[in-house]
Fold each of these.
Amino acid sequence: MATKTPRLRYHAVSVVGGSGACEAAKLLKDVRLLSVDAPRLPLRNCEHPDTCNCRYRKYDDRRAGQRREDARVRIGVAQTTTERRRSFGRRETD
């Protein structure tokens, strides 16, 4: 029995215009879309749908840049350098 490959939750695609791409493809040049939300090819506003060379470029994740999780980790490391709080509280009874 063949095993199924796990479905990626945020699988994304971008539209790559072929030679002489239409304006509709140029507008989607660097836009990553979830694969379930991607428009069908040829695009609806394609100027030459009979000879369209557009295709999808596939990605495992919709995010193109750095993950926010990485930034949180770096911030947490920067805050653990030195303890600047005093050992007593702000009330007179502390």
Amino acid sequence: MRADRWDVGAAAVALVVAGADLAIVPGVTPTWAAAVTELPAAAALVLRRARPLVCMSVAAFAAGAELSLGVPANRPFAPVVVIVIAMYSVAAHQPVRRALLALPVLAALVTFGAARAGLETILDTASLAVVVGLAAWAGGAIVRARTVRAVALAREIERREHAHAHAMLQERTRIARELHDIVAHAISVMVVQAGAAESVLDRQPARAREAIAAVQATGRQAVAEMARLIGLLRDDSGELGLGPVPGRSDLGPLVERFRTAGLPVSLTLDGSLVGAGPALELTAYRIVQEALTNALKHGARKQVCVRVATSAEQLALTIDDVGVVRRDAAPREGGHGLAGMHERVTLVGGAIETGPTPDGFRVRARLPLVTGPT
């Protein structure tokens, strides 16, 4: 790990202090002993952040060696500077358990220095060294604690921002899927009804008026559903968005609208959806709606059978489009409708199978019933 420029600066300052000890401080003798111990200790400060325990060990060993070689304990100032910076660095850049290792090193060094200096200098030198060293260690520990807290807070903020962004993306996807289902269903029915009205306009005006009325009803229904959906984006609690979410009770009117559009549909409901929750009911409604829309656009309109069966564990949907697929119809697998159904089922933890059968096309979905909030 490369040394930081501030670490190089700290080492440079310590080297200047060590040079001053050697050049102008009286009593720092033998000079050679101070030089071979103080200069390496000062240089070791370049490791104060990269390897703080190594820096502390070198500083303590150098100070002990300087005392052993006969340099007075109360003369040189450089060892004090180096030890203080090393103690601070250990506490500031190491976990607390590892940083505590510096304290017995300081105690051993002070004890050794006091023994070498004699009883006369114990109070004025050893006690000062202990106070200064402990103060430096405590200052470093406080800085580290605040840094760790700040880093943890920054990570929590980042995590919440990511979670918020992910939730927004999921909501956009859900809204896009809802809009697709609403618009695709409405446009398909309206196109078919408009075509029927055009074909009988001259010969059977009454039937044409019925078809046009069905177009109007489908349009109103689509506008109401889009108003409910867009209302979810409003900040206030105005009128939009307060309509109920489509569910199992709306399957009858849904099927009736497709019958009016000219699609023969039968609906069978087995069991109750009590406790299923709005998310599961909406998923079931949209699957049936998409399957009937596909049958209206691509099927031969011979017969579509919708069966909704509920057991204690799951909700089973089966939509059979009985009849040969029209040759001029686009492949069902090429659009977004089937993909949307698969996404919806996946979100509620269910399973879905879609594909051709010998006499038509089938959609079969199994949605697990869960208790609790949805």
